[in-house]
């Protein structure tokens, strides 16, 4: 654990923490320094179950991780209802903050987190892993190509997976006091981020939620959708659900071309990533076939997207620590714009699919 490595502490041993602990181990500029849970037993079990090094410190509380002077970064996979407290405290302890999504229960809470990070000069980033994939950078190149893609007209994203009865009864994403956004916050966040990514993070003007969302008996969203509208005529739709077969579609339509992928959140494979594009599409043989065929783009990578996220975050932290750089603002800006849309969608759902204006920055 040399000084050149950014030292991570994890508070909470949720299932996603397993993926991030592996990502930290794979990233060349990061190391897992400490694990904290509400008990030593839980933290120890996590370390054992995931084969962590004996050098990783095991703590029986979140506070001890934040108080450890050797921890540079705190990764927070806690329920959304706990994010405000622990993210603000981490920032006040001068720990850089990598936090799971949805980042907060409202943009008001998120603003409090971001202000704490800004005042204390620490980097903030949410855990939207696919944003850091080398595939995402290649997709952006296509979307910015005026000849091949043209002007953006619409975006459509779908993220669904079918859960079992145990998930519906016990998972924190179905509990109103823990993660009250349900499917909207968990996988709807990815859909909204995909739309904003395609729209170059220009916020829509208004949203209209689809009618008849599926809620559990506690009122938590199990499935919902929404339409988004911009003043210049662009539009987008998304749908997210815990109740249907695994689908991760993202389609971006321009005046000259289309981009499509079917695994935008979690790739089918870690080391060979794909997406498809069409330009100058047409029909031949009495609509029996199309011309030209879709272009298949294959992007090889040695690391999974979550390791790329850890690498990027660690690089920013090192720049702050060693060079006195200021925290990179684009990541908190992306989080806030996503939260603004999320809040508007939730408000539209709560109001029976009324039109809701999206808060602007």
Automatic annotation (TrEMBL):
Signal peptide: none annotated. It comes from the Eukaryota. One of its GO terms (molecular function) is nucleotide binding. Residues 143-259 form the GFO/IDH/MocA-like oxidoreductase domain. Pfam families: GFO_IDH_MocA, GFO_IDH_MocA_C3. Residues 6-125 form the Gfo/Idh/MocA-like oxidoreductase N-terminal domain. PANTHER family: GFO_IDH_MOCA-LIKE OXIDOREDUCTASE N-TERMINAL DOMAIN-CONTAINING PROTEIN (PTHR46368:SF19), PTHR46368. Belongs to the Gfo/Idh/MocA family. This is Uncharacterized protein. The lineage of its organism: Eukaryota, Viridiplantae, Streptophyta, Embryophyta, Tracheophyta.
